[in-house]
Every structure is written in structure tokens, then in C-alpha cells.
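ok here's the first one, seq then C-alpha cells
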Amino acid sequence: MGNFYHECLKGIKKAKGDNTEMITIDGVVGAGKTTLMDIIVKDLGYTPFEEPVVNNPILDKFYYDRERYSFPLQVFFLNERFNHIKNASKIKKAVLDRSIYGDVIFAKMLKDGGEMSEEEFNIYLSLFKNMIEHCEPPELMIYLEISLEEAVRRITRRGRSYEIDTEIAYWERLNKEYTEYFQAYHASPLLKINVDQLNFENNPSDREYVLTTIKKKLQTLDR
């Protein structure tokens, strides 16, 4: 499984641009990506690129009919995330809430689960590989690692009906794919932070711990 993701990431440019300090944040639904992005924006002065979920015309429909909407949703996300990378590469300091690098996780999971056809997946994969050739690697990829149980608790607390109505098996599959993806990830420096016991949205000490961890990692990079 990991070999698939390893091959997908081979097409990324080998070196990042000289003028860009790009951080990408990834993790399953409920891990705290948007919250961490907001912290990095406020405390480290980065420009945010938010995940395109608020004005997404397909997302809520997808959760209730995945076979019908999986392909158009993934193409929508892929295109939006490619635009984010293009725009972020023009900015000195950018932070992305999810990115094109991990977009393939969802497409593969949906194909393996029979919710995206083989033909649709092959079209998606061709688009992904064509786009990724024009993407430079981030300076740092942050992976927010979280257990299935804690992710589900946070999803329930957040209260989006289409997420709450989704069966546990879907989130279990997603968590498994994320684990496999980040075992294979090699495109850039990677920082894994387990967030099961962290509440950096409301707990100042957790917030400071996460910020300090990120700063220390950035200091080790060849900038």
C-alpha cells in the first residue's frame, strides 16, 4: 500500500523555490488542522490558504451519496488545491490547511471502497500526476496524528450533520489510509504531532507546546 503513495509523490519537484517558506498541515477530519493553521498565522506571520469546504457545492451531497459524488468532489478539491499551491508559491510565508500532496489519499480510499470506479480513479490519477509535476515540495509538512476514537469525538462535538451521519467505518478507513500515506511520505521534511491529548485551541500550554515544537523543527531546516 505504501508503495502506491511513494510512487505518487515521485513526480513532485525535487527542490523547493528559493523565495517560499511553505508549511502544509494534514490529518484526518477532526484533527485540528484549521485551528493549528490559525495559530501559525497569528503567531508566526504566515498567510493562510484554507481548505475549500465552506463554499463547496458538492461536499454535503457527497456524504449522503458517495458513489455519485466521489469523482466530481475529488476533481473539485484537486483543482482548488492546485490553485492554492500556485498562489502560495508566490508568497514568502504560506500555510495550507490540507494540500494537493495528500489529496490522493481520499481518491484511493474511495476507489478501494467501491465508491469511485476504476475508470474514474484512473482519470483522477492522471490529473493528479500532471499537476504534481508543477508543484514544489513544502518546506515542512505537519501531520496531526489522532486516534479514531478521539477524531470521532471531535467530529461529534463540531456538529456538522453530514459528518455526524457518516458511518464509523468510513472514518476508520480514512485513518488507516492516512497512516499508510505518512509511512510512505518522502517529499519534504515531516513533523508528526500526536494530538490525542492536546487541546491547542483552548489550552495555552498545549498551544505553546505545539508552537515551540514547530519552531524547533523549522530551525533545523536548511532555509
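and now the second one, same deal
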Amino acid sequence: MPLKLIGMKGSLCTARPLLLLAEKGITDFEFQDVDFASGENKSEAHLALQPFGQVPALDDNGFILFESRAICRYLASKFADRGPSLLPAAGDDKAWALFEQWASVEINSFDVFAQQIVVQKLVMPMMGRAVNEEVVAANRKILSDKFVAFDRILGKQAYMGGDGYSLIDVFYMPVVGALFGLGEAELITKHPNVKAWWDRVSAREAFQKASK
């Protein structure tokens, strides 16, 4: 039975494992698109896979996993011999400690704020609800300050997780791409080192394929 990724087209969280699969050159998988509009995400069948009614989830021959970053970690390890190496070497405690450090940074200093902008400018209009411009402005200000630190970091290393492209970059890329699409490009482009990082990662063949 091939891998089955249960997600939603256009979901940024679903985009993470799709990008990971593209990086690894894995095409032998099934994609199940969950219909949120009909409430499919709250069906018993879906809740058995993802108890919070969200996406994505992964079914690997009966092994069920949810949360996009966990799925990416699992797939990067499962297909370690395919495509670029995206995880630290087994047994390298210092490299793994740094990996977890940078993974925490992505969640706590980027995603939690960026997602607020995405929800307001993308999700709310899709639901026919008004955009809360105060929420957008507040999170834009926080992110603007955070990107000062990111620019400093990326002046010392080429990628978000260190000197080489890694799973940490995969975690960022769908949401950063969404910020560009939502008219928030200046958050990235006004910082030269962040812009240079984005130019590098967004030019990757896997990202171009996964973004179509």
C-alpha cells in the first residue's frame, strides 16, 4: 500500500510534507483531499486519523501520524537515502541539539505570528468574514522586529538551520511564500540576508514543483 497523505489543497500545513516529498523525489503516494466545506474534517473517519479535525495526516500502511512537522521528520528519516540529506547525522548530539533549537525558533519566532496574518488575510475572506486589520498590523510589527534577528542570523549562516539546506527551511517555506502572495513581501525583502536566503530556497526545483 503506498503512502497516503491526507490534507487539503491550499493548506500551508499540508504544503510542508508535499514539499518534503518533492525534495525526496517521492511520487508514489496517494493524496486525499479533505473537503472542509462539507465538514468532512469532522467526520468519524477523519477524526480517527486526526482527532482535532485538522490536516495533514499520514497513513503509512496503517501507521498513522499527524502534525506537519512530525510528518516531515518521519518522511525525511524514512527516505534518508533519497534526495538531499535534510536531517543531522544519527548520533551527532550537537547537530541534533542545534536542529531542535532552530526548529523551535521557526515555531516560536516566526510561525505563530505569520499564521495570524495568513488567517486574517487569507482564511477570513474565504469564510466571508472581515479582516481584523489591528491583528494584521500587530503581528506585522512583531514579525518585522523578528526579521531583524533573522537577518543577523542569516548573515552568519546560509540557511535557517545552519550552513546547509535542511528540514528547518522546509518548515518555513510554505508560509514565507504565502506572505509574498498576501502582499507582505517587504517583511522579507527589506532584509538583505533574509532575501538572499529566500532567493536561494525558492529557486529550488522541488519548491517550484510543489508550488504548482
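notes on #2: The first strand starts at residue 3 and ends at 7. The domain at 93-207 is CATH 1.20.1050.10 (Glutathione S-transferase Yfyf (Class Pi); Chain A, domain 2).
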